[in-house]
């Protein structure tokens, strides 16, 4: 018995936002003072560090549920299964549905319940619920689905990761240039084929790290303003990720029994190009090895950081051969890994 990805799908928003589009923004520091660097220089530094040249935003008529539904429909179509056979719908996100022009999150009913409604699934035994686990949410949803399926209480699970970060960014904070929107989904099945998910690892660091990513006030101080936006302590996150993520990846790989030389691709959360490269290099150093070429696919350059959507979107793009120099075949070993708000880290080893 194995738990494998039977189908995948994604939704890439149509609105392209380039770094040049931020040149007229009024960026401030955390004290509310205008930045000393020009916006052009700020954008150039951002691209050098994160690799981001463009990001995608959803149009004003869409919500997180909408794009999650679109990705789910494509994954189901790709999997070619009867939707009434789904046992679980697990929707990973962090901010619910934020309608355009509002600053209030809508979380009731759950986004998973809304997707089930949109898909017109009648089966009441199909359980729909949300996962709020920071950027590693989709991966954690897969780990939960794997647990259900390993116990024999589910055969088909739909796991969605969707986020609309454009609705929760502070336009006076330069970090707003990192974030993007997107959705990805996968259908998992129990099968007699070899491979699938072999080992998993999850961690939550909350003693000192819980608020490295948090909600805070705008950097442009305005009287009687109580709206909050996504904020992060970038340097602390970078140092934390470089220390802890490689260790979690190593634990997961060691538990799997798969040799590091057998790993074909590392599918890592698209947070920051330099940080991701440093994490993977540090991971290989734990085995006294150098990071191989073409081991780490990236789509952050054009899609930005869409939180829970980066992993399933990246996987779907590789499946559909939309990334140069990146593909995998039946029998290949993949290592998925993510880090994000909480601070949470997770990973799983997978054989295609």
From TrEMBL:
<protein>
    <submittedName>
        <fullName>3-oxoacyl-[acyl-carrier-protein] synthase 3</fullName>
        <ecNumber>2.3.1.180</ecNumber>
    </submittedName>
</protein>
<dbReference type="GO" id="GO:0044550">
    <property type="term" value="P:secondary metabolite biosynthetic process"/>
</dbReference>
<feature type="domain" description="Beta-ketoacyl-[acyl-carrier-protein] synthase III N-terminal">
    <location>
        <begin position="129"/>
        <end position="201"/>
    </location>
</feature>
<keyword id="KW-0808">Transferase</keyword>
<dbReference type="Pfam" id="PF08541">
    <property type="entry name" value="ACP_syn_III_C"/>
</dbReference>
<keyword id="KW-0012">Acyltransferase</keyword>
<dbReference type="Pfam" id="PF08545">
    <property type="entry name" value="ACP_syn_III"/>
</dbReference>
<dbReference type="GO" id="GO:0033818">
    <property type="term" value="F:beta-ketoacyl-acyl-carrier-protein synthase III activity"/>
</dbReference>
<dbReference type="GO" id="GO:0006633">
    <property type="term" value="P:fatty acid biosynthetic process"/>
</dbReference>
<dbReference type="InterPro" id="IPR013747">
    <property type="entry name" value="ACP_syn_III_C"/>
</dbReference>
<dbReference type="InterPro" id="IPR013751">
    <property type="entry name" value="ACP_syn_III_N"/>
</dbReference>
<dbReference type="InterPro" id="IPR016039">
    <property type="entry name" value="Thiolase-like"/>
</dbReference>
<dbReference type="GO" id="GO:0004315">
    <property type="term" value="F:3-oxoacyl-[acyl-carrier-protein] synthase activity"/>
</dbReference>
<feature type="domain" description="Beta-ketoacyl-[acyl-carrier-protein] synthase III C-terminal">
    <location>
        <begin position="253"/>
        <end position="351"/>
    </location>
</feature>
């Amino acid at each position: 018995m194995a738990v494998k990805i039977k189908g995948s799908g994604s939704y890439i928003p149509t609105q392209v936002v380039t770094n040049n589009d931020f040149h007229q923004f009024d960026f401030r520091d955390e004290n509310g003072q205008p930045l000393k660097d020009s916006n052009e220089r700020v954008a150039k530094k951002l691209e050098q560090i994160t690799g981001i040249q463009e990001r995608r935003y959803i149009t004003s008529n869409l919500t997180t549920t909408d794009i999650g539904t679109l990705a789910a429909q494509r994954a189901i179509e790709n999997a070619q299964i009867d939707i009434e056979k789904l046992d679980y719908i697990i929707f990973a996100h962090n901010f619910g549905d934020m309608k355009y022009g509002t600053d209030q999150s809508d979380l009731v009913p759950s986004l998973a319940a809304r997707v089930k409604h949109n898909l017109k699934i009648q089966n009441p035994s199909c359980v729909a619920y949300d996962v709020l686990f920071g950027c590693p949410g989709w991966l954690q949803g897969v780990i939960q689905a794997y647990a259900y399926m390993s116990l024999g209480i589910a055969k088909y699970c739909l796991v969605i990761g969707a986020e609309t970060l454009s609705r929760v960014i502070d336009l006076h904070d330069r970090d707003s240039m990192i974030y993007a929107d997107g959705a990805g989904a996968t259908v998992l099945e129990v099968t007699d084929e070899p491979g699938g998910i072999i080992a998993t690892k999850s961690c939550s660091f909350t003693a000192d790290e819980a608020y490295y990513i948090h909600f805070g006030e705008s950097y442009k101080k305005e009287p009687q303003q109580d709206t909050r936006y996504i904020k992060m302590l970038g340097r602390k996150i970078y140092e934390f990720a470089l220390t802890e993520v490689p260790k979690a990846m190593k634990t997961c790989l060691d538990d799997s029994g798969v040799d590091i030389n057998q790993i074909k691709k590392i599918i890592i959360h698209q947070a920051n190009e330099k940080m991701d490269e440093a994490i993977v290099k540090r991971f290989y150093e734990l085995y006294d090895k150098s990071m191989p070429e073409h081991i780490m696919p990236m789509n952050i350059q054009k899609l930005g950081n869409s939180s829970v959507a980066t992993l399933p979107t990246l996987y779907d793009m590789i499946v559909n051969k939309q990334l140069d120099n990146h593909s995998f075949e039946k029998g290949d070993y993949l290592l998925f890994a993510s880090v994000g708000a909480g601070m949470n880290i997770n990973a799983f080893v997978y054989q295609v």
